[in-house]
Amino acid sequence: MRNHSIWISLLLLSLSLVACKTSQTTTGKTVPVLSVAVETENLLTCCDFGTKMPDGNPVWCEASAVLFDNGTVYVANDKDMPTGLSSVFTKPWKNFADTTVQPTPLLANVFREARKYEDFATNGDYVFLTTAFDRVKAGSTDWDGYNTILYWKKGNEANPQVLAPQRGAKNSVAYREQLSKLLAQNRPAFPKGMPYFKVEGLAVMDSLLLFGIREEGEKYDKFDYRVRIVTVPFFVDKTADGEHLALRDNWRIVADFDPATVADLPKPLALSSIEYDRNRKLFWLLTSIETNGQLDAYLWTATPDELLNNRPFKPVRDAAGQPIHFNHKAEDLTLIDANHLLVIHDDDRANTTVGTKIRQPNQAAYTVLKIN
Fold first, then answer.
1. What distances in angstroms separate CA 328 from CA 89, 130, 297, 325, 365, one per listed residue?
2. Going by C-beta distance under 8 Å and a sequence separation of 6 or more, which residues neighbour residue 292?
3. What CA–CA distance (Å, rounded) separates 272 from 329?
4. Would you call 25 exposed, middle or buried from its count of C-beta atoms within 10 A (0-12, 13-18, 19+)?
5. What is the pTM of this model?
6. Is residue 137 within 8 Å of residue 143, measured between CB atoms?
7. If residue 17 lies in a helix (H) or strand (E), which one and from where to where?
8. The CATH number of domain 25-371 is 3.40.50
9. Out of the domains of life, which is the source (predicted)?
10. What is the pLDDT tens value at each position of the chain, 372 positions in all?
């Protein structure tokens, strides 16, 4: 009997060790517990130092979107750029931190007409880029460019197209009403739709687009911070003049997560990025805070089952069990290989530091994370 008890104890111990190395999902499948650590931090130079806008003010690089593709990094700035430059540009990853190598601006008209870019996404076939959808002017088209979703066949960034219900549209403002009504569901204060909201996240899983909502409320200076995920499927429409993408009429809110349910994190955290990792079949998410001069951000994961069924996200922790966070307003992330994440930061106009370097107006901080 004594030997039998010892055998049972050893069996239970071995099972507990296995459980420590895996995380059980509601589908019964296990996913590895990730160990993530900061590998490097540096500054990206977005344009020449001293570059100015037509009004004489300096150009600020407030990088808000990033995508790695086959050795090239695509970056989008959420601020306008002067003539000859573009808010969307590329730079080789091997020269990403090299201040002597200038980025290459993407100068197609639609890149320059859209305003306030927030997030890139790709499913391996198409690349998508969304703006914030955070403003529109009644009775005018002046601000319609803030409501734009661009896409292009991977490798064909010279010919971006606008995702819109009507072929040839210059922006995607037609989708704004659908988003507004969806976000106002079960919100009696907004019977006609959500007056103000802000898209900051974009991901794509197969043929499903996922939009991350950061802010929503009455107006731009009276809102609540959010971590909400909206999905809509898309399909390829093949016509005589080529392939075009179209959205199906099936918009859904699939996640409404409150980071405050996790103890010891600052408040209020709100969504700033979402990325689908096709290899791990896992979503990476960023939440950030920008209050009273405080800039910080936290990294999270969610399985498709968790995210699409409104289950809690998990904060990613380091080897000591502390949540991974950044002393920056992390805005977007992308995989640069199977085991490295590139995180771009939009520190607004703060002169934040990276090591001994002080960020200049024409620069953006970034972090590379190692996934073990």
1. 22, 22, 6, 9, 8
2. none
3. 9
4. middle
5. 0.91
6. yes
7. helix 2-21
8. no
9. Bacteria
10. 444 444 444 433 343 433 334 444 434 344 455 789 999 999 999 999 999 999 999 999 999 999 999 999 999 999 999 988 999 999 999 999 999 999 999 999 999 999 999 999 999 999 999 999 999 999 999 999 999 999 999 999 999 999 999 989 999 999 999 999 999 999 999 999 999 999 999 999 999 999 999 999 999 999 999 999 999 999 999 888 888 999 999 999 999 999 999 998 999 999 999 999 999 999 999 999 998 878 999 999 999 999 999 999 999 998 888 999 999 999 999 999 999 999 999 999 999 999 999 999 999 999 999 998
Residue 145, Cβ density class (10 Å: 0-12 exposed, 13-18 middle, ≥19 buried): buried
Q: Which two tokens stand for residue 267?
A: 């408040």
Distance CA 348, CA 353 (A): 13
Query: What does each C-alpha distance from 46 to 51, 52, 67, 77, 115 come to in angstroms?
Result: 10, 13, 15, 9, 17
SS3 state of residue 12: helix
d(CA 140, CA 122): 32
Q: State the distance between the two ends of the chain, measured CA to CA, in whole angstroms.
A: 42
Q: Residue ranges of the domains in the chain?
A: 25-371
What is the separation of C-alpha 354 from the centre of its chain, rounded to a whole number of angstroms?
A: 22
What one-letter code names the amino acid at 67?
L
Q: What are phi and psi of 207, to 5 degrees?
A: -115, 35
Tokens of 271: 């969504």
Question: Residues in the chain, how many?
Answer: 372
Secondary structure in 3-state letters for 161-178: EECCCCCCCCCCHHHHHH
91, amino acid identity:
K
Which residues does residue 253 pair with via DSSP β-bridges, in sequence order? 230
For residue 3, give every residue at least 6 positions away whose Cβ sits within 8 Å of its Cβ, in sequence order, or none. none
